[in-house]
Amino acid sequence: MSQSIDLPKIDDFLQELATIQQTGSKRIALLGSRHVPITHQHLIEMMSYALVLAGNRLLTSGATGTNSAAIRGAMRADPNLLTVILPQSLARQPRESREQLEQVMHLVENPANDPLSLAEASALCNQEIISRCQQLICFAFHDSHTLLKTCRDAEDQRKLVTLFYFD
Predict the structure, then answer these.
(1) Residue 75 contacts residue 99 (beta carbons within 8 Å)
(2) Which domain of life is it from (predicted)?
(3) Hey, what domains does the chain have and what are their CATH numbers?
C-alpha cells in the first residue's frame, strides 16, 4: 500500500540553486520555433538584448523566428558575447538568414551535417548548443518535438531550463 514519489535528489536542488544564485555572467542558450509572431519576436529580442547587456554569453542557432530575434538583440548589446551554431553550413541556410549570419563574429558551421535532413542536423546542433551552456531558455509549441526533446536532454544534463509555450 505504499506509493513511491519521484523526488529530485538533493544535489539536483543544490545545483539549480547555485545556478540561480550565480551573480556573474552565464552561458545562456536561447532556442525556439521558427514560427513566431512579430510581437513575440520583439519580446525575445529585448530579452536577449538584456541578457547580453548584463554580461551573459548568448548561444543560439541561425533559424528565422526565435533565433533570429535573439541574434538581433545580442548584436545590439554586444556582438562579441554572441555565438551562433548552425546545424549545417552557411551555404545551406535560407538566403534571408544569411545576411544576418554573415555579421556574426562567432559563427560555427557544421558542413559535415549538410547531407542530413534539417531536422536531424538541428537535433545535433541543439545538442552541441546545450553542451556549451549553463542555462537554456526555449520558446516552443506543444508539438515542437525537436525543441521539447532538447529541453529534456538539457534537464538530463542538469542544466537550468526555462520553457515558454506559444500555444
Answers:
(1) no
(2) Bacteria
(3) 25-165 (3.40.50.450)
Instruction: Looking at the chain, list the stretches that DSSP marks H as alpha helix, in order from N- to C-terminal side.
Output: 10-21, 38-53, 66-77, 95-101, 118-132, 145-156
Picking from 89, 84, 87, 126, the residue whose alpha carbon sits closest to that of residue 106 is 84
Query: In a 3-state reduction of DSSP, which class is residue 139?
Result: strand
Please state, in angstroms and rounded to a whole number, the distance separating the CA atoms of residues 122 and 166.
Answer: 20
* pLDDT tens profile 107-123: 999 999 999 999 999 99
Report if pTM > 0.90.
Answer: no
Q: For 36-77, what is each residue's pLDDT tens digit? A: 999 999 999 999 999 999 999 999 999 899 999 999 999 999
